[in-house]
Amino acid sequence: MGAEPETERLKEIGSRLARSSLSLTRYIATAGPGLIVALFLVILHNFPPPFVGSISNLVFDTYQRAYPRPYEDAGVRVVDIDDESIRRLGQWPWPRTDAVRLTDALTNAGAAAIAFDVVFSEPDRTSPARAVEILRQNPEARGDYSEIAALTDHDELLGQAMARGPTVTGYFLTAEANAQRPVEHAGVAVSGTPPLDVLREYKGAIVSLPVIGERASGAGSVSLDAGRDDIIRAVPLIANFNGQIVPSLSLEALRVAQGAGAVLVRSSDGSGEWGGGDVTTVLAVKTGDLQVPTTDIGELWMHYTAPHPDRIVPAWRILEGDLPEAEMRRLFEGQIVFIGTGAIGLRDIRSTPIQAGELGVVIHAQAAEQMILGKFLTRPDWASGAERMLMVMLCLLIALSAPALGALRGGVLAMLALGGVLAGSWFAFRNSGLLLEPIFPALGVVSVYIAITAVSFYREERARSHIHNAFDRYLSPELVDRIARDPGQLELGGEVRQMTVLFSDVRGFSRISERFGPQELIGFLINLLTPMTDVLLARKATIDKYIGDAVLAFWNAPLDDPDHEQNAAYAALEMLETVKRLNTDRADDSAWPGQVAIGIGLNTGPCCVGNMGSRQRLSYSLIGDTVNLASRLESLTKAYAVNILVGEDLAARLPGFALVELDVIRVIGRDAPERIFVLMGPPEMSSDPAFIETAARMTAVLEAYRSRDWAAAETALETLRGAGTLPGLEGVAAIYATRVADFRQAPPPDDWDGVSQALEK
Length: 761
What we know:
- By secondary structure, the protein is an alpha/beta fold.
- It has 4 domains: about 25-70 and about 375-450, no CATH class; about 75-375, no CATH class; about 490-635, Nucleotide cyclase, GGDEF domain (Alpha-Beta Plaits, 2-Layer Sandwich); about 655-760, no CATH class.
- The protein is about 45% helix and about 20% strand.
- It has 23 helices and 27 strands.
- Strands 19, 20, 21, 22, 23, 24, 25, 26 and 27 form a 9-stranded mixed β-sheet that branches. Strands 1, 2, 3, 6, 7, 15 and 16 form a 7-stranded mixed β-sheet that branches.
- A hairpin with a 2-residue loop joins strand 12 and strand 13 (about 290-295).
- The longest helix has about 50 residues, at about 385-430.
- The chain is elongated.
- The two termini are about 70 Å apart.
- Residues about 15-20 and about 470-475 have low confidence and may be disordered.
């Protein structure tokens, strides 16, 4: 005996261990898929698909729109050959003398550098010698034009102007090879191995005429290569031209402005920061006192400003002398000036993250501004590793925590983690100019949470399926669904609700039963009740039960239905139409018993609804006086020879429907009298003149009957039976004719209240 407590204690320990083991198994089964997803994302991070880059661009574009770089006067101006300049000075291309005047004006104003985002690649057609040559081709031209032809060529004049000032010419780089080559005004030195393999490579160029380009102080590329979506997010500061590193227009303008002798490129293998690798990349470029961090391929991440009027000066104001000398010096002295075309038809339009149509020359100017101000967007070397580590940590956090927290609290944790990732990325951009991608950490949080949620959902669905398999053969599908969602509902009890109840029954079912055998009878009921059930379900009814040929349905439980009275009325009318259609469609079907008719009783009021029955078996049903009266009304449809009878309370809640009062009755088991109505049609019928006439004639019958004016009642009944009355009240007229005849023979007592006793149960 002494060993029994110890045995029981060991059994309890074993049971606890078994439950613990089962719980751990379920935990691992839920968390495992999340860990698998985390591992997959780590692999994917090393080989990111193209859509990741597109999403990253979208994120950083959004950051730029939310926080554009604040405009600061960095000593950079843009002279815009705009529409007004074209209108005032003539169509493009202008004579090179206009470019001479523009260059000299800016030089005299003290510009530190004058950079042309214009390529003078063809001779000026307005030069004196060219003009004389064209003039002499005219047969009407007379005279000696040799003095004019001897005047200095306009391209030469522009070259001289270039030589007088700190000028920079632009050139286009092309993928197609040609014989042209950019002028090298200053060398490009490289600290380390030249990073030619990573730079954008070009085979050809479109350059300014030698007489112009060779006189300038510098030359730079004006090529701006956009991404696949045609948005310029970065500007190349250096490029690979047939194995030669060449600078951009903005970088060359900075060199000339500082009087620097060369551009220095820092390669990854020329710095102690380099961690090794097969490909040499770019770390930074340096000109004069300015060192600019770049991407691996020598690009400057652009952080654009919103358009600002102080940056741009129209060219006509300079060429037409609209600006006094003092204003010219205020605007341009010590400034880097970019000259470009913004006029319609000439403009070099590019898309940026914050503006769909930005001038290319303004992009060059903004690049120069960023380099001067030191306002850079950078993506440090450690960014990728930090993002991967953060992703792994968050994936582990969600994978290990969510199964224990549950869907709701796990979702809150995931949202907090996601919000932290996005907030951290935005903070780094906003305050430090760091480009830290939130994509993979955010993708990790969302993917792991979805995986865990999907597994949990699958397990719950399996549990619900188990309940269905166990009970759906014995209980109604509606109840099984409620039990699957909340097993606690397997308790007896109910609630009192305002509900509408419908009873339906087939007329003459006993006769039909005698005609058909059991199998044929069941087939008939299936063919009849299926479409009527479809009508009821479409009108949001809950099917309580089928009692042979009878149907009991109700509204406003278990789900709320604020329109339950109207839905019930429409359902009853549609059930009648369904029976009519079945009678027509199956007129020649031997399995259909001729013209089938149904009677429907409708009532509304308080009912007790819930899980009724015993502890062995439950049924979601309803009870109450409202249900009993609906059943009585259905039985009375046979006595009054009408299809649908409606109780007084429901009739009051169906404004607009075609209702006609028939009688005041007292049903068995109920002391209070009840006014009953026939439902003849939907609200559209209530405005029909025939219905209005019928209702008025029935009202006249009731008024004469209840006032004991038997002669008037007989007259009203004759009118009710006459032409113009809608069919359907013949049985009612017959009932009242019999009553009037009886009362003529034996008048009712003095306390008679016009209430009839219903004998049907």
